[in-house]
Model the fold of this input.
Amino acid sequence: MYRGRVTHSPLVVVTGGAGFIGSHVVDRLIGLGRRVVVIDDLRSGKRANLARWLDPRHALDGAEPALELLVNDVTEGLFAPLAAVTAKHGPVDRIIHLAAQVSVVASIANPLVDVHVNYRGTVQVLEYARAAGVKKVAFASSAAVYGETDRVPVEEDFPCRPMSPYGIDKYASEKMLHYYSAVQGVATTALRFFNVYGPRQDPSSPYSGVISIFADRARAGRDLTIFGDGEQTRDFVYVGDVARAVCEAALGDAGDRAVMNIGTGRETSVSQLARTVVELCGGRSQIVHAPARAGEIVRSLAAVERAATVLGFRAETALADGLRATLG
Ligand SMILES: NC(=O)c1ccc[n+]([C@@H]2O[C@H](COP(=O)([O-])OP(=O)(O)OC[C@H]3O[C@@H](n4cnc5c(N)ncnc54)[C@H](O)[C@@H]3O)[C@@H](O)[C@H]2O)c1
Done:
């Protein structure tokens, strides 16, 4: 069994690896025997998410630990932070770029910060990849690039009409990935995540997913608030499935220049979700309604065929199972 140490494995860099999705990606990479370097400035991520791999007990027998955490801001570039680690372990093989300002609401309040972190940050990653001969860059894009669509399921070739600086910066980043691939020869894949949920999602953040907020409240026996009638739908995809898709895209060579949805292809209404969460938590909470939020998308559902064809990826975790794991 793998025990948390790697001797001669090419480096995989995960930006944003101390975050919710990033820490699950790190777990999977280390489970696959990869040597991982996380670059994260810990603005929303937590060292605790990586604690088991940072524990010195994982560096027995004189071997190197499988994980190194570099507390750095990606917008300042990757060359300086990675210099020492590449001098020791050789060049970076793959980069998974997840570091981002993740709040749509914050991007509307402060678009310049969003451009700086989410667009400039991506270009810094791609510049490093070009100069260092990195074999593949996998990037966390978002369903937010689509905006409101005429129909569902949403296919990757639908027109993109992002409705926030966050969606626009993700879309612009995808275009930059395409440029680096087509013109600069850096293989890239962009993954448009739908609504990701699972353990370690931060319910204390006002911007975190509805599931972590519902779970937190239902566990405490407090009311769950639904904005509007609750008939709005989302494609909720479990973080373990997302981590698998990310690793497929980053470690394999398939999908260069591709953009693909990462969802389940199943639609769940917010009311249905609230009822299931309350039930799993013992049924003590009431479901209450508040006025609908302006501009909220009514239906969201991923078309999942491209990821299946290109990466061989299909989400496998049923919502009830994923919710049970999230509720702990
Ligand atoms: N959670 C979702 O449902 C969802 C949906 C679509 C896309 N995404 C994308 O997935 C990625 C991961 O999101 P998450 O939900 O895990 O959020 P998260 O906030 O837990 O993770 C983001 C990580 O990036 C780090 N970070 C932010 N700015 C940085 C910077 N300038 N330099 C270095 N590190 C920085 C944060 O500290 C954090 O650890 C993001 O790119 C996000 O936009 C998430």
In short: The chain has eleven helices and 13 strands. Residues 11-194+238-263+302-316 form a domain with the Rossmann fold fold (CATH 3.40.50.720). Residues 111-132 form the longest helix (22 residues).
